[in-house]
């Protein structure tokens, strides 16, 4: 007979920048499968500034990328016990979010960003929590098919949504793009597509261009 238990859990996250009242913009970024936050966050050096804070949580499950030794990566979840894992990482990500934003000023622009597997992770955080944010960026990843339709529509209806991918991305195939379009249609969202010449990777140049796009709304205000 399977049983469940809850307990305190210690987890880590990385920041690029210094939390202060000078910060005007927060990027909450989730890495892809097999990555670690301390390396993933370096990809955002190109857009770091005293007024922009980058926060990179790390997947709660770490493993050896090859065999039983050597390089280590992290993942957000697998197919095993997935509902529980999703609930756990939403609780974890919410705790990171609340800790960081408690150190910042009340009016703040917030970008939720997910790369590859992290795109599904950040999509679930955006739609299955009550955390405030202004825009959602899915880079080399798509909306997961298990998003709650009505809740997702309500949570994303006034948000800027971007789908960014390399035209040579070996994982984001035409079939996957069609799946993205189908899910987006179900939740009544039309992401703006941004493409570039490249594979399954982050482009500093495109990242800089994305960071320069004005926020349509400034919705986050803490009482």
TrEMBL record:
Q: Where is the Phospholipase/carboxylesterase/thioesterase domain?
A: 25-212
Q: InterPro entries, per this entry?
A: AB_hydrolase_fold, PLipase/COase/thioEstase
The Swiss-Prot or TrEMBL record annotates one GO molecular function as: hydrolase activity
Q: Which residues form a coiled coil?
A: none
What's the name of the protein? Phospholipase/carboxylesterase/thioesterase domain-containing protein
Q: Which organism is it from?
A: Roseivirga spongicola
């Amino acid at each position: 007979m399977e049983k469940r238990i809850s307990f305190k859990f210690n987890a880590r996250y990385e920041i690029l920048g210094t939390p202060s009242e000078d910060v005007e913009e927060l990027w909450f970024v989730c890495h892809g499968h097999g990555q670690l936050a301390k390396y993933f966050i370096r990809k955002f050096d190109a857009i770091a500034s005293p007024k922009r804070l980058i926060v990179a949580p790390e997947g709660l499950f770490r493993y050896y990328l090859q065999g039983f030794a050597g390089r280590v990566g992290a993942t957000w979840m697998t197919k095993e016990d997935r509902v529980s894992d999703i609930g756990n990482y939403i609780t974890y990500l919410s705790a990171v979010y609340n800790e960081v934003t408690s150190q910042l000023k009340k009016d703040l622009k917030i970008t939720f960003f997910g790369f590859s597997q992290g795109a599904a992770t950040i999509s679930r955080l955006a739609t299955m929590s009550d955390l405030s944010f202004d825009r959602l960026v899915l880079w080399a990843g798509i909306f997961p098919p298990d998003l709650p339709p009505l809740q997702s529509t309500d949570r994303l209806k006034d948000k800027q949504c971007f789908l960014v991918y390399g035209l040579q991305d070996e994982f984001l195939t035409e079939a996957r793009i069609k799946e993205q379009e189908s899910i987006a249609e179900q939740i009544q969202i039309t992401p703006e597509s941004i493409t570039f010449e490249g594979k399954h990777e982050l482009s500093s140049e495109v990242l800089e261009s994305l960071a320069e796009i004005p926020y349509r709304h400034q919705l986050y205000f803490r009482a």
